[in-house]
Design goal:
alpha+beta; five-stranded mixed beta sheet; 12 helices
Length: 484
């Protein structure tokens, strides 16, 4: 609709604007459904009517042709007198008064039959004619055909098809009413479809409106039909959004709580040094303590940034085929000295070859976090075991200790950012180690499994053994919960 059209036809333009204002996706869908249904019914009934009408016409033509062949045989056997007698006999026996005959001589004289004259438009012998005739003072429709005999004699054979026309009109009326009923049913079905469509959209609209108002508990109802496919998808999406929002709230609260202490301590130390430091050494010592506290804050933010990068898949470009045995040996040697300083024995049970497709540095970083946690909580004179193997097309990398372990409630929250169990409150750290390990596992389409051993804890990285990049890039983005 162009402005030029609007200027020439203002009323039509106004009607179009109103129709467009009240447009409805559900109405359009239901109208399309009803239109397709009505057109399909019309096509089916038209084909049925055409086939039935053709069948009736063929029956008349076959009857006329069979009658004409029989009369031709009498002509050949008995000649003209025999043909005349046969025509008269058939007229006498025609109780239904449907047969039409007219035999004329070479000069057009009528020799036999029940028709008053030869129809002027009936001339060709290769076709059937639909002819209106006057019989007993009434007009009737007939189907006739011309046959030519030797000597210039012509025979017109036909049938009165008033009964066929009556049946045709009856079929036409029946099919028309049937189409109207089907159309009415299509309109009713379209209305029902529109109602279903509106209910689906209404349910989605109500749910999203509640979410927009801040009610994250609202979900689409499960009704037990195909609509549940949409409902499950929307509900899963909302569950994920709720988890992410809860995670953001937890991170915000944890940052405000855990980082306030070192920042406040750094400020207090600098302020105290500014007011009371008497020597350069005291001032430098206060500055060093503040720098250490601020370095801790910086390390926390760097860890958060690393986790965010890993969860966003930014490190996936570095995936390649590698052997994890050497990186794991390096981690064992690196942390062996630290473990010995605390009187802990670190044992490594690693295979000669451990093929893996992924980022070996990220796996190293994840294992380093697991070893660091184990050394922090393991008591002296105990053993920490680093073990790796390939089972059921999965790489299993586990770190086991003999420390205090964790309760079931703590295990379910262990991978949350900034979460620290009560036993870990007095140990260094910010509660981001297992969160990073979880992010590394998810990036490789794997999972982190934590198991209590009584005493101790086993942390296991389960990573799929993949032989091509394609399976990694298709990894699911859904979060895998830490299993206990």
């Amino acid at each position: 609709m162009t402005p030029k059209f609007a200027a020439r036809f203002p009323r039509a333009w106004l009607w179009w604007q109103r129709a467009w204002r009240f447009r409805s996706a559900g109405l359009g869908f239901s109208l399309a459904y009803g239109l397709i249904f009505a057109l399909s019914a019309a096509l089916f009934l038209s084909l049925l009517w055409w086939h039935t009408n053709g069948l009736l016409e063929r029956q008349v033509e076959q009857a006329v042709d069979a009658d004409a062949r029989s009369l031709a045989e009498h002509w050949m056997q008995d000649g003209l007198p025999g043909l005349v007698r046969t025509i008269q006999d058939r007229l006498d026996l025609d109780v239904e008064d449907e047969a039409l005959y007219l035999l004329v001589g070479p000069n057009g004289e009528i020799l036999a039959g029940n028709m008053p004259a030869w129809p002027t438009r009936v001339k060709r012998i290769d076709r059937y004619y639909s002819q209106t005739i006057l019989r007993a003072g009434t007009r009737a429709t007939s189907e006739v055909h011309v046959y030519v005999f030797p000597g210039g004699f012509r025979l017109l054979v036909g049938r009165d098809v008033r009964g066929r026309d009556l049946l045709r009109r009856l079929l036409t009326d029946t099919f028309l009413w049937a189409w109207l009923m089907v159309t009415a049913l299509a309109i009713g079905g379209a209305w029902v479809v529109r109602g279903i469509f509106r209910r689906i959209l209404g349910s989605i609209a109500r749910t999203t409106a509640a979410i927009a108002r801040g009610d994250m508990r609202e979900r689409m109802p499960i009704v037990g039909n195909e609509v549940d496919l949409v409902a499950h998808t929307v509900n899963d999406m909302l569950d994920r959004i709720a988890r992410l929002m809860d995670g953001v709230k937890q991170v915000s609260n944890a940052i405000a709580h855990d980082l306030r202490t070192p920042i406040t301590r750094a400020r207090t130390g600098l302020e105290d040094a500014s007011l009371h430091a008497k020597t350069t050494e005291e001032m430098h010592a206060a500055i060093d303590r503040a720098v250490a506290d601020l370095d801790h804050v910086t390390a926390v933010f760097e860890a958060l940034m690393r986790i965010a990068q890993i969860e966003a898949g930014a490190r996936r470009a570095a995936f390649e085929m590698c052997d994890l045995t050497k990186p794991l040996h390096d981690m064992a040697e690196l942390y062996e000295a630290t473990a010995e300083e605390r009187g802990i024995h670190l044992a490594a049970d690693l295979p000669d070859h451990l093929a893996f497709y992924g980022d070996a540095r990220l796996i190293q970083q994840g294992v380093a976090n697991l070893l660091d946690n184990a050394i922090k909580f393991a008591p002296p004179d105990t053993t920490i075991t680093l073990k790796a193997s390939t089972e059921d097309s999965q790489v299993r990398i586990s770190v086991s200790d003999q420390g205090p372990g964790m309760s079931d409630e703590d295990l379910s929250r262990a991978s949350e950012r900034f979460f620290r169990a009560d036993a870990a409150r007095n140990t260094p750290g910010a509660g981001l180690g297992l969160s990073l390990v979880q992010a590394v596992a998810q990036l490789h389409s794997g999972r982190l499994l934590l198991e209590s051993r009584h005493p101790g804890l086993r942390a296991t990285l389960l990573l799929p053994v993949t032989q091509g990049k394609k399976s990694i890039t298709q990894a699911s983005s859904d979060a895998h919960p830490v299993e206990s």
